[in-house]
C-alpha cells in the first residue's frame, strides 16, 4: 500500500511572508492534491533554527540563516500525501533561484539563495526532525478527503 501518510515540513520563510506569497505557496500544494495537516505562524528562535538547520552548522551562511530566519514571522506547515517529500522539492525548485526552473516557486519568485522564500524537507529523516522542531504531535491532524479515490490510484 502506498504511504499516503507521508509527511513533509514546508515553511514559508520570513522573506516569503514579506513578499505576500503565503497564499501562492499553499495554493501550489493544494492544487497538486496534497493535504494540509498542520499550519501555524511562528516567530522562529535561533535555538529552533539551529536544530532545523543542523546540517548547515559551520557553513559561512549559517549565521545569516539564523539571523534572518529569526527576524520576523514565518509560516510552518505539514503537508501529507504519497511522495510529498520528493514532489514538494520539485514544487519548490532548486535551492539557488538562479538555477530554479520557471514554474517552480523559487524559479517564479526568488532571486537570491539567501532569500529563496520557502523551505521543504529533503528526506524522510529530515522531515521527521523538522516537524518535531515546529509542531507538537497533537498539532498534526488526521482528516479524510471526500472523493480521495479520484485523486489517488493507491490508497
Ligand atoms: P534547501 O533549502 O533547498 O533544502 P539547503 O542546501 O538545505 O537548501 O540550504 C538551506 C538554506 O540555506 C537554503 O534554502 C538557503 O536559504 C541557504 N543557503 C544554502 N546554501 C547557501 C549559500 O551558499 N549561501 C547563502 N545561503 C545558502
Ligand atoms: Mg535543505
Automatic annotation (TrEMBL):
Enzyme class per UniProt: transferase
GO MF annotation terms: ATP binding; nucleoside diphosphate kinase activity
Known EC number: 2.7.4.6
Catalytic reactions on record: a 2'-deoxyribonucleoside 5'-diphosphate + ATP = a 2'-deoxyribonucleoside 5'-triphosphate + ADP
Cofactor list: Mg(2+)
HAMAP family: NDP_kinase
Protein name as annotated: Nucleoside diphosphate kinase
Source organism of this protein record: Adineta ricciae (Rotifer)
Amino acid at each position: 500500500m502506498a504511504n499516503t501518510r507521508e509527511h513533509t515540513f514546508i515553511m514559508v520563510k520570513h522573506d516569503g511572508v514579506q513578499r505576500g506569497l503565503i497564499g501562492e505557496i499553499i495554493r501550489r500544494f493544494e492544487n497538486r492534491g496534497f493535504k494540509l495537516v498542520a499550519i501555524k505562524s511562528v516567530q522562529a528562535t535561533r535555538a529552533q533554527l539551529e536544530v532545523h538547520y543542523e546540517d548547515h552548522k559551520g557553513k559561512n551562511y549559517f549565521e545569516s540563516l539564523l539571523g534572518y530566519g529569526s527576524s520576523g514571522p514565518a509560516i510552518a506547515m505539514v503537508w501529507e500525501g504519497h511522495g510529498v517529500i520528493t514532489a514538494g522539492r520539485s514544487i519548490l525548485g532548486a535551492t539557488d533561484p538562479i538555477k530554479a526552473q520557471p514554474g517552480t516557486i523559487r524559479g517564479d519568485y526568488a532571486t537570491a539563495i539567501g532569500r529563496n522564500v520557502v523551505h521543504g524537507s529533503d528526506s524522510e529523516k529530515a522531515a521527521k526532525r523538522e516537524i518535531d522542531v515546529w509542531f507538537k504531535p497533537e498539532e498534526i491532524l488526521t482528516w479524510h478527503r471526500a472523493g480521495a479515490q479520484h485523486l489517488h490510484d493507491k490508497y
